Amino acid sequence: MDIMNLQMATIAHLQWKSKLSDFFYGVEDLSHSQVPDHCTCDFGKWLNASGLQEFSIFPEMRELVPLHKDIHDRIKHMVQMPKEIRKSDTGKKALKEFKAKCDKFVQLLETVETQAKSA
């Protein structure tokens, strides 16, 4: 099984978690066009090309797919938030929820990776 793509996805999504935090705190600029769709990001391409089929024996994959889409949707939504809203309680709550979703996504990826190594 090709676990390298799971590891790369973990790293990429942790980087997005950091990048979005930096954006929220004014350290980095992001635009809507810089946020790939969940099907066109590297993980999405791999997932749709072979990952879903290859790792379908793991029940976590059924949870991972919609969560991946949700994460991308949240990034796009937050990148479009006006600065005032990002700095408000609403923005802080959105960032906190996004981080929790990212953590869950990474946890699922790591679980699948562990199971794949022992399969």
UniProtKB/TrEMBL annotation:
User: Which keywords, in A-to-Z order, does the entry hold?
Assistant: Receptor
The Chemoreceptor zinc-binding domain, residue ranges: 13-77
Q: Cite a single Pfam family from the UniProt record.
A: CZB
In Swiss-Prot or TrEMBL terms, this protein is called Chemoreceptor zinc-binding domain-containing protein
Origin organism lineage: Bacteria, Pseudomonadati, Thermodesulfobacteriota, Desulfobulbia, Desulfobulbales
